[in-house]
UniProtKB/TrEMBL annotation:
Lineage of the species this protein comes from: Bacteria, Bacillati, Bacillota, Bacilli, Lactobacillales
Biological source species: Vagococcus silagei
Residues represented out of the complete protein: 148 to 450 of 457
EC number: 3.6.5.4
GTP-binding listed as a keyword: yes
Leading EC class: hydrolase
Membrane topology of the entry: Peripheral membrane protein
Domain SRP54-type proteins GTP-binding, chain residue ranges per copy: 276-289
Primary role: Involved in targeting and insertion of nascent membrane proteins into the cytoplasmic membrane. Acts as a receptor for the complex formed by the signal recognition particle (SRP) and the ribosome-nascent chain (RNC).
Protein name: Signal recognition particle receptor FtsY
Predominant cellular place of this UniProt entry's protein: membrane
Family listed: Belongs to the GTP-binding SRP family. FtsY subfamily.
Binding site for GTP: 109-116, 191-195, 255-258
Length: 303
C-alpha cells in the first residue's frame, strides 16, 4: 500500500505513458516499440536497458504471436522483473541479518542523499521488532552530522555513540563496537562521512573503521550499504559507481523514490552496478523505509 503511494510520481508519468501507448496503438509494430523505448529512457532506465528490454520483448511477442498492445502489458511487467533479477551477481535482496551475535551495518554515501534519515528509519524498524539497537556517529567531519543523528536516535528511541566533531571516526566505531559487545546490542548502525571529493582519504577512513569492527567481529561489517538519492537520476548512478570503487558495497538504499517521476533509475543502477537494491525510501517519515521487492516495484509502476 505504502509502496503504491511512494511510487505515485513515477506511475503518473511512466504508467500514463504506457496507458497512452496501449490505447493509441491497435497493433504491436515497430513504432510501438520505438515509443516504448522512449518511455523507458525518459523514466531513467538508461539507454542500454531500454534497448535490452525492447529487444527481449520483441522476441517474446514474436514467439507468443501477440498482436494486441494490451496483451503485451503483462509481458512487459514480467520482462522487467526478469531483467532485474538476471542483472544481479549477488542475489541476496535482504539485509544479511545475523541470527546470533550483533549485525553491524556501515552506511556510506555523500551528504544530503538521506543517509541519516535512512539510519533513523532502520533503527526504528529494528527497535520495533524488539531488537536492541545502537547508532555510531562516525561522520565526525560534517558540522551538524552528529547532532542530526542524535535527533534521529531520539526519534527512534535508541542510543547513539558520539565523540566531538573532528575526532577520529575509527575511535567512535571502536567505542560503539565495545558497547555493542559489553551491553549485548543486536544491531549496530554506523553513519560515515561521505567525502567523495577526497577518495583516498575516504577509502582509508572506511578501511580503518572496518578493521576496528573486524578485530572484534571477524565476519563484520555484515553490510556496507550505499545510500543514493533517486531524485538525482543519472548523477546517483555516477556517485554509486565512484563509491563502488572506494569500498566493497554490499547493497543499495535508494532514498527519495517517492520524490521522483523516474523510478526507472532502479533498473539503470542495477544494470550498471550489479548491486541489489535492499531498501527504498518512500517518504520523510520514520516508517517510510521499505524492503525492495522487484515485483512490487514493477507492478507499482503500472497500477
Ligand atoms: P544525509 O546528509 O545523507 O544524512 O541526508 P539526510 O538524512 O539529512 O536527508 C536529506 C533530506 O532528504 C532531508 O530533508 C530528508 O527529510 C530527506 N529525505 C531522506 N530520505 C527521504 C525519502 O525517502 N523521501 C523523501 N521525500 N525525503 C527524504
Amino acid at each position: 500500500e505504502k509502496y503504491d503511494k511512494g511510487l505515485e510520481k513515477s506511475r503518473r508519468t511512466f504508467g500514463q505513458f504506457m496507458n497512452e501507448l496501449f490505447s493509441n496503438f491497435r497493433v504491436v509494430d515497430d513504432e510501438f516499440f520505438e515509443e516504448l523505448e522512449e518511455a523507458l529512457i525518459s523514466s531513467d532506465v538508461g539507454f542500454d536497458m531500454a534497448m535490452t528490454i525492447s529487444d527481449e520483448l520483441q522476441e517474446e511477442v514474436k514467439l507468443r504471436n501477440v498482436k494486441k498492445p494490451k496483451d503485451v502489458e503483462r509481458t512487459i511487467v514480467e520482462k522487467l522483473v526478469e531483467i532485474y533479477d538476471s542483472e544481479g551477481e549477488n542475489e541476496n535482496n535482504e539485509i544479511n541479518f545475523q541470527a546470533s551475535g550483533p549485525t553491524i551495518i556501515l552506511f556510506v554515501g555523500v551528504n544530503g542523499v538521506g543517509k541519516t534519515t535512512s539510519i533513523g528509519k532502520m533503527a526504528n524498524r529494528y527497535r520495533k521488532e524488539g531488537k536492541k539497537v545502537l547508532l555510531a556517529a562516525a561522520d565526525t567531519f560534517r558540522a551538524g552530522a552528529i547532532d542530526q543523528l542524535v535527533v534521529w536516535g531520539e526519534r527512534a528511541g535508541v542510543e547513539v555513540v558520539r565523540h566531538k566533531p573532528g575526532s577520529d571516526p575509527a575511535a567512535v566505531v571502536f567505542d560503539a563496537v565495545d558497547r555493542t559487545k559489553k551491553e549485548g546490542y543486536d544491531v549496530l548502525l554506523v553513519d560515515t562521512a561521505g567525502r567523495l571529493q577526497n577518495k583516498v582519504n575516504l577509502m582509508k577512513e572506511l578501511e580503518k573503521m572496518k578493521r576496528v569492527i573486524e578485530r572484534e567481529y571477524p565476519s563484520a561489517p555484515h553490510e556496507v550499504l550505499l545510500v543514493v538519492d533517486a531524485t538525482t537520476g543519472q548523477n546517483a548512478l555516477i556517485q554509486a559507481k565512484q563509491f563502488k570503487e572506494t569500498t566493497d558495497v554490499t547493497g543499495l538504499v535508494l532514498s527519495k523514490l517517492d520524490g521522483t517521476a523516474k523510478g526507472g533509475i532502479v533498473l539503470a543502477i542495477r544494470h550498471e552496478l550489479k548491486l541489489p537494491v535492499k531498501l527504498v525510501g518512500l517518504g520523510e517519515g520514520i516508517d517510510d523505509l521499505h524492503d525492495f521487492n522487484p515485483d512490487q516495484f514493477v507492478y507499482g509502476l503500472f497500477k
